[in-house]
């Protein structure tokens, strides 16, 4: 079926009209585009988003049981962003994000088992237990990055490599509303625009950087306009189809060598900033409840499919049951898999190097490190 | 044209030698590596059309063009991050900091994005990048442009940190660094750029590399070991010449690499001479010399020491501007001679 998505854009309108020159405009225009969803796609998006949701809720449980420790930044509420992006790019494209990364780790191809085992710090984790929540990697997925904003220049660098190698690939570089004020992001905008790097800069605006609302952190909360000379698109990040269509447009634009695009996905996180934040001291429970009841991305997709007879209630239920099994199995694995062996402690310091000695905690402890 | 004495060469036929200054050695090394591997590229401020702020990249832009030699805006954090990202995605960048002082703007990308990634990813994501530029004191550039970063970067696992002294070091270590699949911090020295050294034919071979992590004994001696890196190696050799006239034979060890530190070579030397003086341009506290002394204390060489090991370092102050003050802020040959005599109880 087709659905109409409303986009707010800068410059976008002119591009649509195929005006050759990019006019710098402070005003925004809005555009309506249609998106088409097939039954197959709908079921796939539903399954993926629901898996992400259940995985994050299971992580919440395990964290409260102290089986997951340290930092744990959960993604529930924002699933349409990760799903929409993945639906709009190719597996051979590239993606990098910050620390709220479990959803992207999944959409970029890592199994729930390997993600959960990494969260519990076991040898079966995607980073063998050495990275944890914020440092998971996959092919064409560069993490999981702990330093706010640092991933954006890295993403621009991946885009540079795409351009250099002439492989027609793009890089999606994500950051939050909190990171959006980082200087290095503007440095990246400058170089990406100057060199026309195929980079899609995406601000996932979930309205809060930790406990600081966007109004209290940013002189301008129009994050899609922050790219100034770079065209910007603002998208409803709770609507997986809108996200997908916007990404498709942006990816085509970048692949055509026209330079970077800045995108703002308006979204919401149900959990606090991390597991150590109850998330209600700086926002009301009513607000969270309202988003859940009116704008939940998974509910919205399900209701569209049901009301358009694209799927039955039973089918959806079956998927849910299936996902529950996958999550349970993954959690079981994550709890029972042993921790990494101690002789792995010093490995992976250097790549493609001869084995070397690493000093232990005292001069008599000499540990071995292999690549 | 200042010709430094190069006593007792241990390798290469001097007959075939021709003088190449450190700048040209670096330039030739980069040229050859750019030619050898199309994934190698150079980015930094003024590296292309200006031929390099210190002319180290002279001629490279003309030869290789915009794609491989990239002038960046003055945005260290941004372009260092871009360089690391390019390394993630399959390229082999050389990221130049105009001086290492400016790397402080980008140090998070060097440490948290480059150095730690191979470990955090349990070997999934190597980072084959070289960060290079002039390090340490220069002449009259004052406090903000004179800091030595050997100790700071040398502190961090996941980095290789090298500090060449002469042209052979510069050429061989830069080639090794570019061919290395890991992040390498390459600390040059501005005052050494114009200094010529004879390079033998085998050093001039295209595949000549100096192994990272191996120190070189530049001068053999029996009474005392001097361990140094970068420009101070030359001062140690000069001090050794003066001391030789008084019958003191110094063994001079050129570290070449700060991390990983070649403790074996240092220990072997100290076990032979029984005395140790470290010499560096950087500040004393928590410095390179401090690490060397600690390692000697903890290892077999301690039992061979006939006197406590001492450090000759820069003075523990921000670098002043006035020439007389600057000259007294860095180790001079007389400081090395004085310290040697103190350690030898002369």
TrEMBL record, chain A:
Catalytic activity: N(6)-[(R)-lipoyl]-L-lysyl-[protein] + pyruvate + H(+) = N(6)-[(R)-S(8)-acetyldihydrolipoyl]-L-lysyl-[protein] + CO2
GO molecular function: pyruvate dehydrogenase (acetyl-transferring) activity
InterPro entries: DH_E1 (IPR001017), PDH_E1_Alpha_Subunit (IPR050642), Pyrv_DH_E1_asu_subgrp-y (IPR017597), THDP-binding (IPR029061)
Pfam families reported in the protein's UniProt record: E1_dh
Positions of the Dehydrogenase E1 component domain: 47-341
Assembly mode: Heterotetramer of two PDHA2 and two PDHB subunits. The heterotetramer interacts with DLAT, and is part of the multimeric pyruvate dehydrogenase complex that contains multiple copies of pyruvate dehydrogenase (E1), dihydrolipoamide acetyltransferase (DLAT, E2) and lipoamide dehydrogenase (DLD, E3). These subunits are bound to an inner core composed of about 48 DLAT and 12 PDHX molecules.
General function of this protein: The pyruvate dehydrogenase complex catalyzes the overall conversion of pyruvate to acetyl-CoA and CO(2), and thereby links the glycolytic pathway to the tricarboxylic cycle.
The protein, known as: Pyruvate dehydrogenase E1 component subunit alpha
Species in which this protein is naturally found: Oncorhynchus tshawytscha (Chinook salmon)
Species lineage: Eukaryota, Metazoa, Chordata, Craniata, Vertebrata
Gene behind the chain: LOC112247524
TrEMBL record, chain B:
Pfam families: Transket_pyr, Transketolase_C
Localization annotation: Mitochondrion
InterPro entries for the chain: PDHB_mito-type (IPR027110), THDP-binding (IPR029061), Transketo_C/PFOR_II (IPR009014), Transketolase-like_Pyr-bd (IPR005475), Transketolase_C (IPR033248)
Enzyme class: oxidoreductase
NCBIfam families recorded: PRK09212.1, PRK11892.1
Subunit structure: Heterotetramer of two PDHA1 and two PDHB subunits. The heterotetramer interacts with DLAT, and is part of the multimeric pyruvate dehydrogenase complex that contains multiple copies of pyruvate dehydrogenase (E1), dihydrolipoamide acetyltransferase (DLAT, E2) and lipoamide dehydrogenase (DLD, E3). These subunits are bound to an inner core composed of about 48 DLAT and 12 PDHX molecules. Interacts with DLAT.
Record's protein name: Pyruvate dehydrogenase E1 component subunit beta
Name of the gene: PDHB
């Amino acid at each position: 079926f087709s659905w109409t998505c409303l986009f707010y854009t800068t410059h976008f309108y002119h591009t649509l009209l195929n005006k050759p020159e990019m006019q710098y405009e402070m005003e925004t225009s809005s555009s309506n585009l249609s998106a088409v969803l097939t039954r197959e796609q709908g079921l796939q998006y539903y399954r993926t988003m629901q898996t992400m949701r259940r995985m994050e809720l299971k992580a919440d449980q395990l964290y409260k049981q102290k089986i997951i420790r340290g930092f744990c930044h959960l993604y529930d509420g924002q699933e349409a962003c990760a799903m929409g992006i993945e639906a709009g790019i190719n597996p051979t494209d590239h993606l990098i994000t910050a620390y709220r990364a479990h959803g992207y780790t999944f959409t970029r191809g890592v199994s729930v088992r390997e993600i959960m085992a990494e969260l519990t710090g076991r040898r079966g984790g995607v980073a063998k237990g050495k990275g944890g929540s914020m440092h998971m990697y996959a092919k064409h997925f560069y993490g999981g990055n702990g330093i706010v904003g640092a991933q954006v220049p890295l993403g621009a660098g991946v885009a540079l490599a795409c351009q250099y190698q002439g492989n027609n690939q793009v890089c999606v570089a994500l950051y939050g509303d909190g990171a959006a004020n980082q200087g290095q992001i503007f440095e990246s905008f400058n170089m990406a625009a100057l060199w026309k790097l195929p980079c899609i800069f995406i601000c996932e605006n979930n309205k809060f950087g930790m406990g600081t609302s966007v109004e209290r952190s940013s002189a301008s909360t129009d994050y899609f306009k922050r790219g100034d000379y770079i065209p910007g698109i603002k998208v409803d990040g709770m609507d997986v189809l809108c996200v997908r269509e916007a990404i498709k447009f942006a990816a085509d634009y970048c692949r055509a060598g026209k330079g970077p695009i800045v995108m703002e996905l308006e979204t919401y996180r149900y959990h606090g900033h991390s597991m150590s934040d109850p998330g209600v001291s700086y926002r009301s429970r009513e607000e969270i409840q309202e988003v859940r009841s009116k704008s939940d991305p998974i509910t919205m997709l399900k209701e569209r499919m049901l009301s358009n007879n694209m799927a039955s209630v039973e089918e959806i239920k079956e998927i849910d049951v299936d996902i529950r099994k996958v999550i349970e199995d993954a959690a079981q694995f994550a709890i029972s898999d042993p921790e990494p062996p101690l002789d792995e402690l010093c490995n992976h310091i250097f790549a493609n190097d001869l084995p070397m000695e690493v000093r232990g905690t005292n001069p008599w402890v000499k540990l071995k490190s292999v690549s | 044209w200042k010709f430094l004495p190069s006593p007792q060469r241990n390798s290469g036929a001097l007959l075939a030698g021709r003088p190449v200054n450190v700048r040209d050695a670096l330039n030739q090394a980069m040229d050859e590596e750019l030619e050898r591997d199309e994934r190698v590229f150079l980015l930094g401020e003024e590296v292309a059309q200006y031929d390099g702020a210190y002319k180290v990249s002279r001629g490279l832009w003309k030869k290789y063009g915009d794609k491989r030699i990239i002038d960046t805006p003055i945005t260290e954090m941004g372009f260092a991050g871009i360089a690391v990202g390019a390394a993630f995605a399959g390229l082999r960048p050389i990221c130049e900091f105009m001086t290492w002082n400016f790397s402080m703007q980008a140090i998070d990308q060097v440490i948290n994005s480059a150095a730690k990634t191979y470990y955090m990813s349990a070997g999934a994501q190597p980072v084959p990048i070289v960060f290079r530029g002039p390090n340490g004191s220069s002449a009259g550039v004052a406090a903000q442009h004179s800091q030595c970063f050997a100790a700071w970067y040398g502190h961090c696992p996941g980095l290789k940190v090298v500090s060449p002294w002469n042209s052979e070091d510069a050429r061989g270590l830069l080639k090794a660094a570019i061919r290395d699949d890991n992040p390498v911090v390459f600390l040059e020295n501005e005052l050494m750029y114009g200094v010529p050294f004879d390079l033998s034919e085998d050093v001039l071979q295209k595949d000549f590399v100096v192994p990272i992590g191996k120190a070189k004994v530049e001068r053999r001696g029996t009474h005392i070991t001097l361990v140094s890196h970068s420009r101070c190696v030359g001062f140690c050799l000069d001090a050794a010449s003066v001391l030789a006239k008084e019958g003191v034979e110094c063994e001079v060890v050129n570290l070449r690499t700060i991390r990983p530190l070649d403790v074996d070579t240092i220990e072997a030397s100290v076990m032979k001479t029984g005395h140790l003086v470290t010499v560096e341009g950087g500040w004393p506290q928590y410095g390179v010399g401090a690490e060397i002394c600690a390692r000697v204390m903890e290892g077999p060489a301690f039992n061979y020491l006939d006197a406590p090991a001492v450090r000759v370092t820069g003075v523990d102050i921000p670098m002043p501007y006035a020439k007389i003050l600057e000259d007294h802020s860095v180790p001079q040959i007389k400081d090395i001679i004085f310290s040697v005599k103190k350690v030898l109880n002369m």
